[in-house]
Specification:
single chain, mainly beta, 1 helix, 2% helix, 48% strand
Length: 282
């Protein structure tokens, strides 16, 4: 595959394929502004995309890195996870050389298919592919005349060989809200998070990098601007109830999401906010 950026058809949806001279590659869907695939040099897919994902241009795509905005989950009056993941984004800029590929996608209130969001805004998602790194930066600008609040996340589905044999390190000592225990606040006391049952946790004010270890590879995860980290795996029963995911799909994925959830972001007119998530294949 030649280095550069090309427009492609991905399961019937318009997308961009990014590639570098050392064989790193990524695929980004314009529907949802969503990274659907990332393979660093040496191969090996690092993002989970459900083999039963729906590509009809209206249903959220299960997997990759969906953008949750302006609402995370059901924390507000909008549809779950907001409208950004079901809107078509525009290509604002694209640059590349043999060493990197960079695109910036844009979304505003005129592009977004939504109800119940009366605010003017401009959102940008910059995606940088470089060597063994994938970097996503999400920026929101208030272009209207009134302040607004929002919550957001990069809902990153990481691909794993076997989730029960994976370890997520770096969350020791942080408090989290357990969504499976009616929002009970607990503190992580283990050296590593092991997935042995359904998980749905929102860790607060995480300030250090995380490391996802597998027996033959690791992945560094770092966030800036985002204050929280969501860790999610549906496990057996919940996964079986998800129509666009195979029954054993939970074994091949772990969501580790850069998020701004506990404290909504408030933007006055003319103000902006940004958050970044960086993934590094080790």
């Amino acid at each position: 595959m030649a280095a550069g950026i090309e427009r492609v058809d991905f399961h019937g949806q318009p997308a961009l394929r990014l590639a570098t001279g050392n064989a790193a590659a990524a695929v980004v869907s314009l529907f949802g502004g969503q990274v659907l695939s990332w393979t660093p040099p040496g191969g090996g897919e690092r993002l989970y995309l459900s083999p039963q994902a729906v590509f009809d241009g209206s249903t959220p795509i299960r997997g990759g890195i969906p953008v949750c905005f302006p609402q995370f989950s059901d924390r507000g009056p909008l549809t779950r996870h907001g409208f950004a993941r079901t809107s078509t984004w525009s290509v604002l800029t694209e640059r590349s050389s043999k060493d990197y590929a960079l695109i910036t996608l844009g979304l505003n209130e005129g592009d977004a298919k939504h109800a119940g969001w009366p605010h003017a805004f401009a959102a940008e998602l910059s995606i940088l592919l470089e060597d063994s790194r994938l970097d996503l930066e999400f920026e929101v600008n208030n272009t209207g005349g009134e302040s607004f609040d929002f919550t957001a996340a990069l809902h990153t589905y990481l691909a794993v060989r076997e989730v029960e044999e994976s370890r997520l390190e770096g969350l020791h000592g942080y408090s989290y809200t357990d969504q499976l225990e009616a929002g009970r606040v607990q503190r992580d006391s283990g050296d590593a998070l092991l997935v042995e049952a359904e998980l749905d946790r929102i860790y607060r004010r995480v300030e250090r990098p995380l490391l996802l270890r597998e027996h033959d590879r690791s992945l560094g995860i770092n966030a800036d601007g985002f204050t929280d980290v969501v860790v999610w795996n549906p496990w057996v029963e919940r996964c079986a109830a998800i129509a666009d995911m195979p029954d054993d799909g939970f074994r091949r994925m772990l969501c580790v999401e850069a998020a701004a959830v506990h404290t909504p972001v408030r933007l006055a007119p003319g103000e902006s906010w940004w958050g970044r998530q960086t993934l590094v294949a080790l």
